[in-house]
Amino acid sequence: MNANKLNKISRVILVLCAILLIIVLYVPMWTIELNAPQYPEGLGLSIYANKLGGNLDIINGLNHYIGMKTLHEKDFVEFTVLPYCIVFFSIFCLAAAIIARKKLLYALLIVFISFGMIAMADFWRWEYNYGHELNPDAAIKVPGMSYQPPLIGYKQLLNFGAYSMPDVGGWIFIVVGILLLTISLIAFKQRVSVTSILNNYKASALGILFLIFSSIACTSIPEKINIGKDTCVFCKMTVTDNRYGAVLISIKGKSYIFDDEQCLISYLHSDKITIANVNAIYVIDYIGNHLLLNADEAFIVKSKELHGPMNGTFAAFSNKDSATNYIKMNTGSLVTVKEMTQ
Question: Which of 119, 240, 242, 268 has the smallest C-beta neighbourhood within 10 Å, fewest atoms?
Fold first, then answer.
């Protein structure tokens, strides 16, 4: 085997990367979602390679009130340039597969990573400009307030929770980057044994799958519910009692706050979300420091003596002794989170 040539598996992966990059042209690359009590279903802004999608008109109306520029595709030169960049990288992948030279693969990896870094920096600059350059004559003005969405993750903007995350096209870009890095590292090792190469690819494939699923499934644990500030997504009441409450985390990483476990139950029984879209549920510890507990690990008591803000009859405890002591002193029984939410 020529030490400077790519093996067949690497070439096949390069062709696969070329195909995946073409798909990026037709699916959203990034999404920014906004949640607020007046918009319980949420508002979404989808960013494609050449256009904007989602609830653009509603978001532009809200932006006008707070002095932000309205979003128009014609204002973004990126929508003209980005499709050509994607096609360029697709052709680059095919060329690297056909020529099969390791140096060409290394050049592709360096240019691809550099492009990704420049694209994210440009995205941050775009968010910064739109969030800070506000009209001084806006209807709603909050001194010192800016409205820059997060680059990735969650950020509170007034009464809106803003979530920024990769969409299908963004995840494809990440997968392509991981694939290019993997085959580059394996090529750099210059293993001539076919068995060794196959073993490396098997290990790398498992690593890629782990990274992808970890990125999608990983959700930051909510810190706390802000008593007197946060609003229940179901009943629209402000959270007032630090002994009751829950947070639902969707598979997309959205946080839904409830002032009573009963509101959580009602929300789950509505058509607003399905169990399949629930990643985790956290409940407030009834006693002690009232921190949020993973509902699957908490000890949940159902009792007629409990009177949550919305007439709920559930309370969560961090340890079994506290839960059983409450039952002995009052009435009730231990239930699982599945039994509570049925």
Answer: 240
Cβ neighbours, 10 Å, residue 69: 15
End-to-end CA distance of the chain: 62
DSSP 5: B
| CA 71 centroid distance within chain | 22
Single-letter code of the amino acid located at 214: S
Backbone dihedral angles phi then psi of residue 116, each to the nearest 5 degrees: -60, -40
Which DSSP symbol is given to 38?
T
CA distance 325 to 327: 5
What confidence score (pLDDT) does residue 40 get? 64
- Taking the C-alpha atoms of residue 139 and residue 137, their distance in angstroms, rounded to an integer, is 7
Distance, C-alpha 158 to centroid of its chain = 20
The pairing of strands 255-258 and 52-54 is: unpaired
H or E element, residue 249: strand 246-250
The tokens describing 115, both together, are 């492009």
Radius of gyration of the chain (CA): 25
> What is the residue extent of each domain of the chain?
8-217, 246-341
| Strand-pair partners of 258 | 246
Q: Model confidence over 8-46: pLDDT tens digits?
A: 999 999 999 999 999 999 999 999 888 777 776 678 899
Ramachandran area for residue 132 (φ above 0: left; ψ -120 to 50: alpha; else beta): alpha
Q: What is the pLDDT of residues 202-254, one digit of tens each?
A: 555 555 555 544 444 444 455 578 888 888 888 888 888 989 999 998 877 77
pTM more than 0.85: no
Structural tokens at position 91: 């052709």
Closest of 94, 41, 45 to residue 73, by C-alpha: 45
Maximal C-alpha separation, the chain: 79
SS3 (DSSP) at 160 = strand
Query: How many angstroms separate the CA atoms of 120 and 126, rounded?
Result: 10
List the 52-54 sheet strands across, edge first: 52-54, 39-47, 30-36, 160-166, 153-157
Q: How far, in Å, CA of 316 to CA of 337, rounded?
A: 10
Pseudo-torsion of CA 68, 70, 74, 78, nearest 10°? 50
